[in-house]
Amino acid sequence: MAAYDMFRVSNPRLLNLTVYVMVMIMCGIALISGPEGTAKITVVSLCVVFGLVHALGFQHADSPDRLAVYFVIQVMLILALMRLSYPRDVFNLLFYLLAVEAVLVLPTRTAIAWIVGFFLWTVPVYI
User: Fold this and answer.
1) pLDDT tens digits along 29-57
2) Is residue 27 part of a domain?
3) Domain containing 21: what range?
4) DSSP percent split of the chain into helix, strand, coil, nearest 5
């Protein structure tokens, strides 16, 4: 895929606000009903890292390769969150954010491929 196949988000402030509000909600859920002890601290830390990776990575993902690295890092963070909070599946909501980001910046077929990949990556967590 050539670099011109990517779209730029013209005004990313609303997307950034959405991601940060979701991260704050996820941190709140983890503090209220998450796992106990050090796992709770780990879950909150991973939520914060998710927000930081978005803040630092999504803006600089100006090529398909960088965007792929960004998506893979975010997917690994979400999978770690899901694994730590098993059997609760509240952190699946973060995949919706990644799906929206993929649809915003990638052509339709490529975005669909990433979304299917997001779905397939969640399967091992529930096995």
Assistant:
1) 888 877 788 888 899 999 999 999 999 98
2) yes
3) 12-126
4) 80, 0, 20
